[in-house]
TrEMBL record, chains A, B:
GO MF, one annotated term: transcription cis-regulatory region binding
Protein name in the entry: AcrR family transcriptional regulator
Coiled coil: none
Domain HTH tetR-type: residue ranges: 19-79
Pfam families named among the record's database cross-references: TetR_N
UniProt keywords, alphabetically: DNA-binding
Signal peptide (from-to): none
Segments of the chain annotated as binding DNA: 42-61
Length: 196, 196
DNA sequence: GGTCGAAACGGACCGCGGTCCGCTTCTATT
DNA sequence: AATAGAAGCGGACCGCGGTCCGTTTCGACC
């Protein structure tokens, strides 16, 4: 075998025009989301802005949720990168406890900033599974570093659940709770789960 | 003043035909949800089944989410009643810790049973605010009984967050985690939050 | 019972998400 | 360069949630 043979690719490597269209659609969607806000972005608009037919959008991204998830993914990826290899205390280099707190605060803010996009991206499962379980995996790792014993998967879920948009939405918009109080409450939660 | 005078009613007491229609709509919706499943229930169907125009549905229930929330509310009310005045350990009479665990398990199951209806009822805020904060208030009360100190509102939120449908959905459908493990994980969480 | 304003009604209508299928474009092969 | 057929394309079309407004019904008051 030579280096010209395709090495363990996907069985169907994307065709050139398809790739071009995917890029065009993604760029158009991102632009429209930024300028008009998520709510005002219709599939027809994205299609015409990208200069493709509507069918193409749905073949590439499955649904509106899928497209929004793809847009969201752009910033999510950057955020993940800063968790994995950015400067401390979010990135590696700081003590695990500091990293965990930085993680929570950062995630909290990221969720609030992209609130409407996250809502439009819909239930997890539409977003890539890998992206979704990243947070859980990272928290599990940090809890391990802190010497926490028990069902770490469950504990990580418990730590992350209060940061979910649906919960934050209720607290911020409905109950008018300040960001500081939410952060403090989350810090307390972490302390109780880790400590003792 | 006599007993014939309306006592501190809403300013606009519902007209007779309006009340009749509300009942008919709710009954039709409930029936259709039970027989065909939430996903197959369209507003047109409910309207014709109830023998009213579509406009009436939307005037009474605001949106599809609102209608589904109203349907969901029927069973939620019953559940709340059993928490407030049902038999122990869920109702009053048992030690606070037992009640709390019973509460969590009961809520967990209720959420899973009505999963699709809850999803269709959409974000909180569509459902009545009272109904939504009931769980939080109850948990806060139980935590107080247990002598927990701190920001009880935040702690109650932390206790309830892992029971939210969006979290459970991920665990049950995506990660295939058993109900027992979820319950055990939640029990552990409660112990850590209360204890120490 | 008759009158009148307000409230409720209902179905035609709209926009959007999503599908379908005949046509076009790409690329592997010779 | 020619070819063939798979992959991609696009826009007409559909169903559903939601709105609008001319018409009907209610019930308070005379």
């Amino acid at each position: 075998m030579t280096h010209l043979l395709p090495l363990a690719d996907d069985p169907a490597p994307e065709r050139a025009d398809a790739a071009r269209n995917r890029q065009a659609i993604l760029a158009a969607a991102l632009h429209l989301v930024e300028t008009r806000g998520v709510a005002c972005v219709t599939m027809d608009t994205v299609a015409s802005e990208a200069g493709v037919g509507k069918g193409t959008l749905f073949r590439r991204f499955e649904s509106r949720e899928g497209l929004m998830a793809a847009v969201l993914n752009e910033s999510e990826t950057a955020w993940q990168a800063s968790v994995i290899s950015g400067p401390p205390p979010l990135g590696p280099g700081a003590p695990a406890m500091e990293r965990l707190h930085a993680f929570g605060h950062s995630r909290l803010r990221a969720n609030l900033v992209h609130a409407d996009l996250i809502a439009a991206a819909g239930a997890p499962g539409t977003r890539s599974v890998a992206a979704l379980s990243f947070a859980n995996m990272h928290v599990r790792y940090l809890l391990g570093e802190l010497g926490v014993t028990g069902d770490l998967l469950m504990l990580a879920t418990a730590v992350l659940a209060p940061l979910e948009m649906i919960v934050l939405e209720q607290q911020v918009n409905r109950e008018q709770i300040s960001l500081e109080r939410i952060e403090a409450g989350w810090d307390d939660l972490v302390r109780r789960i880790v400590g003792c």
